[in-house]
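hey so i finally got around to running the thing on that chain from the lab meeting. sorry it took forever, my laptop kept dying and i had to restart like 3 times. anyway pasting the input first so we r on the same page abt which one it is
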Amino acid sequence: MEWFLTLLIIKHFICDFPLQYPRHYLNKGIYGHRGGIEHAGIQGLGTLLVCLIVGAPIWYVLVDFVIHYHVDWSKNQLNAKWQLRPDNKYFWWLLGIDQMAHYLTYAWMVA
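ok and heres what got predicted. didnt touch it at all, straight out
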């Protein structure tokens, strides 16, 4: 189980940062926009790879896709509503909550 969580965390970093492009992060706040769906899909594909490696249930891919999409969309909605930018400490609080929600999803999957 430790490897499962470790691989999910590594997957999350790769998919959330190096593999996230402007068309993703600029459009995740628009519900149903292709950019947000692509980003969550990349996360889902990474989860599929991890599940295949460790023998975890494949339906976790759908769970990760749906939760990841909605967590990111929610964060973007709040950033826009409160006009948060990187020079505001609450921008970073919200980013931290976003990341924690993703990691708690992985903790649930591993449990």
